[in-house]
Every structure is written in structure tokens, then in C-alpha cells.
Amino acid sequence: MTDTPDDTTRPSPQPASGKPAKKSLSVLLQLWQFVTPYRKTSIAACIALILTAGVSLSIGQGVRLLIDEGFVAQSSQALQQAVVFIVGLSLLMAIGTFTRFYLVSWLGERVSADLRKAVFNHIVTLHPSYFESNRSGEIMSRLTTDTTLLQTIIGSSFSMALRSSLTLIGALILLLITNLKLSLIVLSCVPLVLLPILIYGRRVRKLAKKSQDSIADVGSYAGEIIQHIKTVQSYTRESHERQAFGKEVEAAFEVAKQRVRQRALLIAAVILMVFGAITGMLWVGGNDMLAGRMSGGELGAFVFYAIMMAMSVATISEVYGELQRAAGATERLIGLLNVESLIPPGGELGAPSDTVALNPTEDTQPVAMSENTGHSLLSFNDVSFHYPSRPEQAALHQLNLMIAEGQSLALVGPSGAGKSTLFELLQRFYDPQSGTITLQGNDIRALDPHSLRQQLAVVPQQPALFTADVWYNIRYGKPEASDDEVIAAARAAHAHDFIEALPEGYNSHLGEQGTRLSGGQKQRLAIARAILKDPKILLLDEATSALDAESEFHVQQALETLMKNRTTLIIAHRLATILHADTIVVMDQGQIVAQGKHHELLTRSPLYRRLADLQFQEPERSVS
What we know:
The chain is of the alpha/beta class. It has a domain at 25-337: ABC transporter transmembrane region fold (Up-down Bundle), CATH 1.20.1560. The chain is built from 19 helices and ten strands. The chain has helices at 32-35, 39-72, 76-123, 128-133, 136-178, 180-188, 190-227, 229-234, 238-290, 296-337, 419-426, 449-454, 470-475, 483-492, 496-500, 519-533, 549-563, 598-604, 606-615; strands spanning 376-386, 394-404, 408-412, 434-439, 442-443, 456-459, 537-541, 567-571, 583-588, 591-596. A six-stranded mixed β-sheet has the order 6-7-8-3-9-10, with helices on both faces. Helix 3 (76-123) packs antiparallel against helix 5 (136-178) and helix 7 runs antiparallel to helix 9 (238-290). The longest helix has 53 residues, at 238-290.
């Protein structure tokens, strides 16, 4: 058997979008907003940094005293004093290094944590269409890999860069003071040292960003396969996925190899230039010492400062590559933070301060009731909508629908008719391109989304359960609920018995996405969650589709009790579950084609009658 990878190769994902970031190290300045809350720690770290750099440079003077006053002068007392001086400086440098390392590392961890929280807090407010074009695995990579990289940069590399810069400047000044001629020899080599940093640094930065993107692709691919592992194994695609994942890993490795090669060339070039200059300086300085133009101590101190300067330049060149990687990671994170939600509070009708809440107080005046809404609670007025990912195809077209308070309304029709889209728009996951949706007479685009969604409870066709215990999952819509309230909601959803049968009862953890439960059990937990929230409007999307016949009977009774005196919208493919709805709306191709009771639609709607014929053996039977 031969492999045919070409027909199953996945298209490359589009990178998460955001405002374009600056293409230089200046993008790192945007991290300053996360550092400023910790000014005292930053100042203390800088003081320790300056102290350490100053003490390091002072050791050179100890070396000069050691040679001139101790060795050359043959003075035991001067030798002892020079040694004590150097030991004292070493102790101060150890204390300063400890303080600097602790404060800078703490700052790096703190900024990384704050940045991670800021990105996550922004992500949870983004519109759902953003996640249609950006993979969750890539976003998770930004939250973890990129922020961890920045923590390393801020907590280590950035500190090393500052320390080396201070040491470089101080060593250069002391070189000039010690011997001007030798200093000019060293300075003449500086342009040669900076040249590879500028040339290779730019290449390293581009490859660093590309490397981070490739790592994100690897994580995203692995996450998707693990999430759908049953499907992979069911279709016996393990071998193919191993090969495909191997290609992703090798692609990431190739990018990383190029980045490492460029960094290695950068470091090697800098070291060659720097120590070549030192060698030339030693030759000239050695001749001057032999000719009596400078002392051995001065030459020793000069060599010490030159080595410190060389080490500083080498460190800066190495850290420069890390800073380039940090710039790439910062671009990705800042780009994510700059993504603007298409559903901001207040939407198209005003800024967040202009929003109104449901059930307004005397101080908050709602938008005036439209004349065509009457006493309806919900109203869709000439609503047209296209999903951002499918702009050429209308999901809804000039739809008009009124729903009275306390009414149960069922939506039926073939797949793609627009039923679920109504739920999406009502929850304001999207805004329609034209037309209005009103709730209590308020255009929902003028409502605070948080206040709007607090009035709703959704029981989806595929319930979302979290990796936590039963208490947490049922309480998700009402965190302050007592244990008794949770148990009462579970009983109403006919979930209490199977929950008690779990190994730890309500304390049992459900696994990722509730994998330890059956489909029917997941559905009943979702229903219990909605019952506990006690919403004004209930949205049921095939809420009983995953239940067996007996469970469906009990849950249907619970739902009927829950639906009394409550506005309920039901999406149903099984007509038997909505025969007693106050109104049944038949949809097709984004429009309402019929509306009425079950027995009325059997005679008035060919589409509804065809759906009934497919599901009932006696379609002509009407229900009173």
C-alpha cells in the first residue's frame, strides 16, 4: 500500500490577526505598561544592577594595586591591603548580584503573569467569529510559550543586557583614563564588532518569530488530534497522524536550526573581533610596559577592563538574539491584545457608557418601545445576517418574528435554515448586518451584553462541560447557589440518581469535556444548569436529542414545568418534542415560511407536512 499524503494535506492555518506591530526592538517598549505598576521593585533592581556593575569595575583598581603596590614594590602589607580590598569588593558584588537576580526574576515572573492574565481576559471578550479563523492551539501557544519566553527575557536576559551595557560603558571610560593610546586601538574595532550584530541580529529576529509560529502550529495540531482521538482511532488514521505530526515537528526544527545557526554565527563573529582587538592591544601595551611608558599594574588593569568590555560585548551580542526572539513574541501577544471585538458593549448604537440594562431602574431610561413590537418580549424586525466566514451566503434574510412573554416557540426546518443563527444573534455573539432585534423594547445592540446574557439560559445540542466536579458544572450559571439548590435542580432534570451513583457523587470530576459521562447524562447536567439559573428566556437547542426514551420522558416533564410562565425558544428536529408548543415556526433558507400550531401546519405548510411524514406513521393525526 502506498501513502497518498497529497490529498489529505491540511492547509496552513492563518495566523491570528491583530494590528500590525512595529518591526524592530522598539516593540518591546509596549511591555512597559506591564512593568510600571512595580516601579519600586524596578528601581530597587536598577540600583542593585548599578551597584554590581560599579563594584565589578572597581576590582580592576584592586588588580592595579595588587601588581604595582604588592608585587612590583615587594610590599607584603600593600599586598595584604590589595587582597582585602578585592575580597571586600567580591562580597559586595555577591550581595548586589543576589539582590539584582531576585528582584529581576520576581519582576519577570510578575510581568509574565500579568501579561498572561491580560491576554486571557481579552480573549474571553472577543467575538466568536474571531475563533472561526484562528485556531485555539495557536492562541494557547501565545498564552503559554510566548509569555514564558518573555518571562525569561525580562527576568534574565534583559537584566544581563543592562548590566553588560553599564559594564561596557564603565570599562570604556576607565580604559580611556588608564591609557588613551590603547583605548583608541580598542575603539577602532567597535564598528567591526557592531557590524555582525546589526546584520545577523535582523535575521535572528525574523527567524525567531517564524520559530514561535511553527511551535504554535505543532501544539495546535497535537491538541486537535488529542481532542478527536476517538475519531482518529475509529478511522485507523494513527499512522497518518504520526507522519503528519512528524512533518510539523521537523518543520519547526528546521526553522529553529536556521535561527540557532544565525545566532551561533553572530556570537562567533563578535568573539573573533573582540579578542582579536584585545590581542592587538596586548602587543602594543606589552611593548609600552617593556619600554617603561606604563606600569605593570596599569597594563594589568587595562587588560582587566578590556576583558570585561569584551565579555560585555559578547554577552550583549548573545542577549541581542534573545531580545529579537522576545520582540517576535511581543508582536504576537500585542497583536492579540489589539484585536477589537466586533461586539463591544453598546455595539453600533453607542459607547459602553451609553448602554442600558434590562429591568432598568428609575434612573435608567430604556430605549423607547417600537410601535410594531406591541406587547412582545422579543422581536426580530427585517433581520438579515451573513456569517463573517461566509459573506456571500445569507444565513437570515429579512426575517420578522415576534415572541410574546411567557410563550413557547419552536423552530423547525431543514439543516441550514437559520434556526441556530437566531440563537446566536439573540445572545449577541454576532450583530445583524441589517434590521433590529429588540428585547423589552430595547435594541439589544444598545444593551450591555453581560446584562443581556444574564437573562438567558441555553441548553445546547452538544452540552459543554468543564474539567471539574458536578457542583461546579451545575453552578456555572449561578455560582452563588447553595448545595440544596443545586441538588433540587439536578432532581428536576432527573440527574440526581446517576450523580449519586458516581464514585464521589457531586464531588466527582467529569474529565475533559465530560468524557466520563454518557451523552444523555451530559444533557441532563446541562438542563440542571439551566434550571438552576432560572432565566427569563430559555433557549433549547435539541435539548433532549441525546436521551433514551425513558429519560426523555422524565426530562420532557421537567422542561414543561420549567417552561411555565417563561419565554422559551426551542430548536427541534424531532417534531414529537414540540407538539404542545404555543407556536411552531417553520424556517427554510433563512426565512420564515409558515407559522402556527402543529395541526394547522399539517394542512398549511408543505414543508412541515413533509417533515411530519418522515417522522410520524400517522401524520394526519392532529393534537388538540
